[in-house]
Amino acid sequence: MPNSQLPSERPEQRRGQRLLFLALLFGVLLNFPLLGAFSHDARLAGIPVLYLYVLVVWAALVALTASLIKN
């Protein structure tokens, strides 16, 4: 039997599942309760903490998505 992998073990399906998990994770990270936690007047290096949080989360999303697509 040349293709002995189970259907749930195919790399394409695993990649799709990981991308779906990543989308859900970042959906939670960019949702109101966490955004509300960072929505105050504090600044870090002159940048509002909320903007910095969104920028870091977005950069992490891009980097993790690129690494999942590349592998």
Oligomer: single chain
Number of strands: 2
For the largest beta-sheet, the strand count, sense and barrel status come to: 2 strands, antiparallel
What value does the average pLDDT take? 89
- Note the run of SSEs as H and E: HHEEH
* Helix residue percentage: 55-70%
Which structural class do you get from the secondary structure elements?
Answer: mainly alpha
> Which residue ranges are poorly predicted, with pLDDT under 50 across at least 5 consecutive positions?
none
Instruction: Report the end-to-end length measured between terminal Cα atoms.
Output: 26 Å
Strand portion: 5-15%
* Contiguous helical run count: 3
Q: Radius of gyration, rounded?
A: 18 Å
Specify the overall morphology: elongated
Order of strands across the widest beta sheet? Answer: 1-2
Keywords: Membrane, Transmembrane, Transmembrane helix
What does the model show?
The chain crosses the membrane at residues 20-38, 50-69. With 71 residues, the chain is mainly alpha-helical. It has a domain at 10-45. Helices cover 68% and strands 6% of the residues. The protein contains three helices and two strands. A two-stranded antiparallel sheet has the order 1-2. Strand 1 (43-44) and strand 2 (47-48) form a beta hairpin. It starts with 10 loop residues before the first helix and ends with a helix. The model has no long low-confidence stretch (mean pLDDT 89).
Features:
single chain, membrane, 2 strands, 3 helices, transmembrane helix, transmembrane, 6% strand, mainly alpha, elongated, 71 residues, two-stranded antiparallel ribbon
